[in-house]
Amino acid sequence: MVDVTPHGADLIPPAEVGEMDLYHPHSWWTKYVFSQDAKVIAIQYSGTALAIGLVALVLSWLMRLQLGFPGTFDFITPEAYYQFMTMHGMIMVIYLLTALFLGGFGNYLIPLMVGARDMVFPYVNMLSYWIYLLAVLVLVASFFAPGGPTGAGWTLYPPQAILSGTPGGTGPGIILMLVSLILFIIGFTMGGLNYVVTVLQGRTRGMTLMRLPLTVWGIFTATVMALLAFPALFVACVMMLFDRAIGSSFFMPAIVEMGEQSPHNGGSPIMFQHLFWFFGHPEVYIVALPAFGIVSDLISTHARKNIFGYRMMVWAIVGIGALSFVVWAHHMYVSGMHPYFGFFFATTTLIIAVPTAIKVYNWVLTLWRGDIHLTIPMLFALAFIVTFVNGGLTGLFLGNVVVDVPLSDTMFVVAHFHMVMGVAPIMVVFGAVYHWYPKMTGRMLNEWMGRFHFWVTFIGAYLIFFPMHYVGLVGVPRRYPELGDTAFIPPSVHTLNEFITVAALTVGFAQLVFLFNLFWSIRHGKEAGDNPWRATTLEWQTAGTPPPHGNFGKELPVVYRWAYDYSVPGAPEDFIAQNDPGPATQGGPATRGGPATQGGPATQGGPA
Amino acid sequence: MSAILIFLALVMAVAGWWLARQRLMSKPWLEAGPVNAFPATEASLLHPAKLGLGVFLAVVGALFALFISAYFMRMVYADWQAAPMPWLLWLNTGMLVLASVALQCAVVAAHKGQVDNLRLALLVGALTSVAFLGGQLLAWRDLAANGYFAADNPAVSFFYLITAMHGLHIIGGLLVLGRTNVRAWRGERPAKLTLTTELCAMYWHVLLVVWLVLFAVLAGWAADFVDICRQLLS
Question: Residue limits of the Heme-copper oxidase subunit III family profile domain (chain B) (predicted)?
Answer without folding.
Answer: 1-223
